[in-house]
């Protein structure tokens, strides 16, 4: 039985669960449309998590038939279309979700991320700032992280730095904010804080070519030869054709 059939079975069970009668209770209860909507949304999100965006659309569409103003269903469809590169449809469903829940920080933040990916930086910043106003939002540190990334794209390093610092005050274990702070401090030749941020970053995240190259440069500056050699080995082995590996090769030959 595939998952769509399972969902239909589940929804049928939900609908019938209120229809059992006894001699003392002859009237039938009405089925709960909210339960049916939520079951369809969860099924759609399950498909989305597995990367099966085409399969996700049918249950999410059914959820909207039950509740055309469901912010959760519109948000899920927005993420489906965003993953498929259907930017017009994604934008529409983000806006529909916000029309139902205009102050929802999760929707505001996700829409901001979408706008950032579309290089609509000023628009993205506006939605991130709205999301950040909710001081009880559990992912508020990520919102400030996204504000920092937006300012970086806008070539405003001081504003980016302030936003990453704010993110780290809320959650000191944010690897992206730690790495971006290391990059900013390194670019400003503030090597001691750059090294501190970088070493904290390595405690909470894996590495990519860019982070390994930054680590090599910092480790060599502080004469931490073991770390420098380890990072260089990883860069050459894991990312041999990357620009960072080429930069390392050029630095070693100079």
From TrEMBL:
Transmembrane segments: none annotated. It comes from the Bacteria. Keywords: Repeat, Signal, TPR repeat. PROSITE patterns: PROKAR_LIPOPROTEIN, TPR. TPR repeats lie at residues 37-70, 71-104, 141-174. SUPFAM superfamilies: TPR-like. Pfam families: TPR_12 (PF13424), TPR_14 (PF13428). The keyword Repeat applies. Residues 1-22 form the signal peptide. PANTHER family: BARDET-BIEDL SYNDROME 4 PROTEIN, PTHR44186. This is Type 4 fimbrial biogenesis protein PilF. It comes from Halopseudomonas salina. The lineage of its organism: Bacteria, Pseudomonadati, Pseudomonadota, Gammaproteobacteria, Pseudomonadales.
